[in-house]
Write a structure and sequence with these properties.
TIM Barrel, 565 residues, 3 domains, alpha/beta, five-stranded antiparallel sheet, Immunoglobulin-like, 24 strands, single chain, binds 1-deoxynojirimycin, 26% helix, Oligo-1,6-glucosidase, domain 2
Length: 565
């Protein structure tokens, strides 16, 4: 099928369904809630929705542990209501992409339940089972020293068959054996099921992890908590398997794919996303720009470093230019809220708008995460019992076991937990933030700041963060330079300013962002005299011009978007 690459004009809104909107009054977000909010989503000006997993799941990792790929989790609805959501979205010009989680299933998936019963079971080879060893006392020991990224060791013992299964995430997420052609056929079948129903593509969960190095040797590089990672990150057959999915399924539909690719670098990404006959994914979610205040993971925090953020943004803009397409995001369900990380809670409104401008005008397809558009912030966890996420629980357990002080561990959890972005969306100042009815306990505590920060209040304010997102998205869709133009960064060594331009014949755009709690002076880049451009967007009421000494004064967290035609 001839591809028109419609995703290049798209702007996506990500829904993490459990916390989006409760429509049936049980305290859990669901598809009825989504139906109620379709007009709201369309009002943002976005053109698509990415649903984090909606499928049947015991929720060990909140839906990323799937027990039935072809049915909706009953807490969220059923296939009929999903079809209504899909039709309702399409009727509003919104495409819908599903999360495709095929590196692993749930341990409650019938395939896994079968596979663990005997070595001869036809489903045994759907998973990665290996023999282990014995220690001096005769106790079973795992096949290698790999760590799970979420929960202890990467192997779990099954006494019934005296073998171990691999889980690079939680124990309840056994890795599928993608080397087995029957498993790949199942993946194709799942893809066809949803595409035939009318969905427009997939966000492919940790898709670069699906192929493990043969022999799965022990890892002698001491990467605490991540031993083994290098033996399955971008593994030996990943391209071959994705080519198969493309040729047998995806190429027969007018659909798009965005693959999640932790740790990927541009040289490793291009073989997947470079446009041409070998391309297997349309875009990738990369991670470098999410490490501007940490080392590799949110759990190794560092002070925020704007140069690191800018370096990551510009590197990907430059390296993919003319070859491949970027997926742009600054928030999702796996990281704390961006205002609390890269912005300033003291200047919440200004910094949320600035952060929007910092990425929405780059080249690529933007994704906006639920609540991001109203500047939701991190919450506060008083104790680990208030933090449901399996990975946070694991971090807590490991650090406590190694003798760390409880208050230090909780400080880290409060800094790094991805549960910050999973609190219910704040719809109004009513009880439970309007997420679920008054008197019903929401599945996860609402952030107490909902009285001031909520959609209803933001709708009222002409200058709200929400309306800024609307204007920015509209502007991006209006200006061809945002889709087509080249990217150029200025002030690269500044620790306060992020300034970039987009250029094409006949139209240029300049984005200025002052990442500081104080006023900063900037000499405008050559050729970008603010007085000659049209100020199309800003986060203060006025925009003082260049001073007689040639400097442009920028107030705390000020951003401006100028267009030159
Ligand atoms: C990435 C997903 O975004 C995350 O939420 C999940 O925990 C892991 N993959 C495992 O599926």
């Amino acid at each position: 099928m001839e591809r028109n690459r419609w995703y290049k004009d798209a702007v996506f809104y990500q829904i993490w369904p459990r916390s989006f909107k409760d429509g049936n009054g049980d305290g859990i977000g669901d598809l009825w809630g989504v139906l109620e909010k379709l007009d709201y989503i369309a009002s943002l000006g976005v053109t698509g929705i990415w649903f984090s997993p909606l499928y049947v799941s015991p929720q060990a990792d909140y839906g990323y542990d799937i027990a039935d790929y072809k049915a909706i989790n009953p807490e969220y609805g059923d296939l009929d209501v999903f079809q209504q959501v899909l039709d309702g979205a399409h009727a509003r010009g919104l495409r819908v992409i599903m999360d495709l989680v095929v590196n692993h299933t749930s341990s409650e998936h019938p395939w896994f339940k079968e596979s663990r019963t005997s070595r001869d079971n036809p489903y045994h080879d759907y998973y990665i089972w290996r023999d282990g060893g014995r220690d001096r006392e005769g106790n079973p020991t795992p096949p290698n020293n790999w760590d799970s990224l979420f929960e202890g060791r990467a192997w779990e013992y099954e006494p019934a068959i005296d073998q171990w299964y691999l889980h690079v995430f939680a124990k309840g997420q056994p890795d599928l054996n993608m080397d087995n052609p029957a498993v790949r056929a199942e993946v194709e079948d799942i893809m066809r099921f949803w595409l035939d129903m009318g969905v427009d593509g997939f966000r492919e969960d940790v898709i670069t992890f699906i192929s493990k190095v043969e022999g799965m040797p022990s890892d002698h590089l001491m990467v605490p908590g991540a031993r083994g990672l290098r033996f399955y990150e971008n593994g030996p057959h990943v391209h071959e398997y994705l080519e198969q999915f493309r040729d047998n399924v995806l190429s027969h539909y007018d659909c798009m794919t965005v693959g999640e690719a932790p740790m990927i670098t541009p040289d490793k990404a291009l073989p997947f996303i470079e446009e041409g006959p070998n391309q297997t994914l349309d875009m990738m979610f990369t991670f470098e720009h999410m490490c501007a205040d940490c080392l590799f993971t949110d759990y190794v925090p560092l002070p925020f470093n704007l140069r690191k953020l800018k370096g990551a943004f510009s590197k990907w803009q430059k390296e993919l230019d003319g070859k491949a397409w970027n997926a742009l995001y600054i928030e999702n369900h796996d990281h704390p809220r961006v205002v609390s990380r890269y912005g300033s809670e003291a200047y919440r409104v200004e910094s949320a708008k600035l952060l929007a401008a910092s990425y929405l005008f780059q080249k690529g397809t933007p994704f906006v995460y639920q609540g991001q558009e109203i500047g939701m912030t991190n919450t506060h966890f008083g104790s680990i019992d208030e933090v449901p996420d399996v990975s946070a629980q694991n971090q807590y357990r490991n650090r406590m076991a190694s003798g760390a002080k409880e208050s230090d561990v909780m400080a880290l959890i409060n800094r790094a937990a991805r549960d910050h972005s999973r609190t219910p969306v704040q719809w109004s100042a009513e009880e439970n933030a309007g997420f679920c009815p008054a008197g019903v306990e929401p599945w996860f505590a609402v952030n107490p700041n909902y009285h001031g920060i909520n959609v209803a209040a933001a709708e009222e304010g002409e200058d709200s963060i929400l309306n800024f997102y609307r204007k920015a998205i509209a502007l991006r869709r209006e200006l061809p330079v945002v889709r087509e133009g080249s990217y150029k960064e200025f002030k690269r060594v500044s620790n306060e300013l992020y300034v970039y331009a987009r250029e094409m014949e006949g139209q240029r755009l300049l984005v200025i962002c002052n990442f500081a709690d104080h006023e900063t002076l900037m000499r405008p880049p050559a050729g970008y005299d603010p007085s000659l451009g049209e100020l199309r967007l800003g986060n203060y009421d006025d925009a003082p011009g260049t001073r007689p000494d040639g400097f442009l004064p920028l107030r705390p967290w000020e951003c401006r978007v100028y267009v030159y035609e």
